Amino acid sequence: MAEVSVRKLIKRFGQFEVVHGIDFDVTDGEFMVLVGPSGCGKSTTLRMIAGLETVSDGEISINGELVNDVPPRDRDIAMVFQDYALYPHMSVKQNLGFGLKMRDMPRAKIEEAVQRTADILQIRELLDRKPKQLSGGQRQRVAIGRAIAREPQLFLFDEPLSNLDAKLRVEMRTQIKRLHIAFNATSIYVTHDQTEAMTLADRIVVLRGGVIEQVGTPDQLYNHPVNRFVAGFIGSPTMNFIDAELAESAGEASIVFNDGQTLPLTAAQRQSYASHKGQKVLFGVRPEHLTNVFTAENRGGAGLVPIEIPVEIVEPLGADTLVFSKLGGSEIVSRVAGSADLRPGTRIPVHVDMSRTHLFDPETGVRLTAT
Amino acid sequence: MTEGVATANAALRTRRRPRWRISEHPYIWVAPLTLLLLATYVYPAVEVVRFSFTNATLLNPEYEYTLRSYQALQRNTSLGGLLWITFLFVFASVVFQLLLGLLIALALNRGVNRNLPGVSVVRIVILSSWIVPGVAAGIVWQLIFSEASYGFLNSLLRDVGLPPVKWLSRPDIAIWSAVIANIWRGTAFSMILLYAGLVIIPKSLYEAAAVDGASAWRQFWYVTLPQLRPILLINTILISIFTLNTFDLILALTGGGPGRATEVLSLYAYNLVFRNFDLANGSVIAVVLLAISVVFTFFYIRLLPKENET
To answer: Which N-terminal residues, if any, form the signal peptide (chain A) (predicted)?
Structure first.
């Protein structure tokens, strides 16, 4: 069990600074995911926590102890690598037991831990094989097993699922989640895949260009993104953004798109956005809030505004259908009922759940809130 | 116009293709290299074996076939000593070339990983010792070991107040002088092979080992050495064969002396043929060398990774 604290962490490679002084805390037993596009510094940050990269400036503490200069082997951590990094010349059994052997555990203890781990991950029948005789999914299991066999205080995952095919990735994702629920060990997990981040995390750190955009629970990031980047990064398909103006229309504060179409604001929104009246804004609405489906959540809600959109491209997913369309002069995607028989060129009635929409400052990208 | 060219090209292709397609006429393609190898490798080897069954000398163009040279080999009382000298020379050279080659390769690899300047200069300097011809290396080392007033090592010893060493004139020291010169010359080869082996070991293995709690020494023992194992074995066999066949360096350094203290098998064969003009007996020794090399080669082939293994 461990708490991790990262303070003003900076990483430079020569003259080139890739992590620009970030702060976050991981509480005991928490599953923290670092997510962001490639080159955002998430892996570098994880490798600094592991001790595989030196810290250029700032502090990393584990359980209150500064570990900047502690070598990896003395940090009591385990790490799962993207390419698995299994020792090719060792059997699965030796791979699982290696960390214990390096800590000079007695042979019987190692054997016991290896068997227990193999049972948990259901890889008992693979124990005598070499890594090259395993499939990708089996290698990944062994890599995770190598980490849990030692029962470290902190687990680090560096994009562990990105080399697996889609089906296996979902399977392993569930497996990792199950393991976390069972052991409740503090974990830091790096991925570029926002779905992985949302499904696994207790909390998420969204990174871009070496700075933190937002730290929060999946729910906070999804429902209350602090800026346009986080709003667009979390959620799939991504949020629709439409240029608009916060204007008066028929005596009420409304969203007015460039083509003149208007959407009335809810009472709550009128209040919060009062100080921004007349301002140019970026209107953000997720595809699932631009739909013809009524849910328990939105049924009878005050913010439902019926509109009609032209159907341009239809992508049926089975359970629901993505409709590529235009609204207020911008390209948009909406998520409608799967059974709808849609033909390009026709128009389809949908409703906008205004209570779930956001307004962003078109210059800074910051989400507008009550001021 | 382009159309005309295209047709001409097409015509050329259809005319040529059937005759030269490698899948249909492989022998035409293989023939030049086969002939070259036959002429330069197989023919001399066959000739050596043939001459070993004769009484040929370089002084008389006529000879007849006989087994006398092989019978002489059985009665040769100096053979035991020659084999012992050869074994010492090969064994010591191989062990130290491997050790030094590995040390330098590790240092170079570390240097490259840390972006240290001058790594390529070091590599070139070390490699240059390998491309020096054996005879030239022998002469250079003769100057270094020389017991005359200009001898490099002895003048160093004199400067620090130590007595001179009879590097080349004492039989029990001369063999080690020859070994040292040969180690100097052959280490670069091992270094290059092992360096190539080190470079391809994935970095993440070391990172995983570091996180797993392995110290630098244990990382070397549990990751580097096992990963290098196939290359170490092949390297050992290759340099064993090279060293077994080395005579140019010893010829220039000691000429096999003092007495016969540094006369290895290959030098003995050379002396028999070109000093005693005894082609037949020299060929017999060459056949013995060939047999030993074949045994090494057999192991080498066994150790090479098979094509269906990855």
So the answer is: none
pLDDT band at residue A221 using 50, 70 and 90 as cut-offs: very high
Domain contains B64? no
φ, ψ dihedrals at B94, nearest 5°: -65, -45
Name every chain A residue with its beta carbon within 8 A of the beta carbon of B213: 73, 99, 102-103
- B29 within a domain of the structure (yes/no): no
**Interface membership of A81 toward B (CB under 8 Å):** yes
pLDDT tier for residue B1 given thresholds of 50, 70 and 90: very low
Domain with CATH 2.40.50.140 in chain A: 240-360
Domain residues for the domain of B192 are: 82-276
Q: What is the CATH number of the domain that holds B123?
A: 1.10.3720.10
Number of domains in chain B: 1
Instruction: Please tell me the least confidently modeled range out of A213-217, B8-12, B159-163, B235-239.
Output: B8-12
**Is B199 inside any structural domain?**
yes
* Residue pair B190/B263 in contact by the 8 Å Cβ criterion: no
Chain position carrying tokens 């007996």: B281
A240-360: CATH, from 3.40.960.10, 3.30.9.10, 2.40.240.50, 2.40.50.140: 2.40.50.140
pLDDT at position B135, please? Answer: 83
From the CA of B214, how many Å to the nearest CA of chain A?
Answer: 6
- Average pLDDT, rounded, for chain B: 83
Where do you find CATH 3.40.50.300 in chain A?
Answer: 4-233
Residues of B in contact with A78 (CB under 8 A): 211-212
User: Which residue in chain B is spatially nearest to A75 when comparing CA positions?
Assistant: B211
Query: Mean pLDDT across chain A, nearest whole number?
Result: 90
Q: Do B211 and A83 touch (CB under 8 A)?
A: no
The predicted pLDDT at position B310 comes to 39
Contact check, Cβ <8 Å, A73/B214: yes
Residue B67 lies in a domain: no
Please report residues of A whose CB lies closer than 8 A to that of B221.
Answer: none
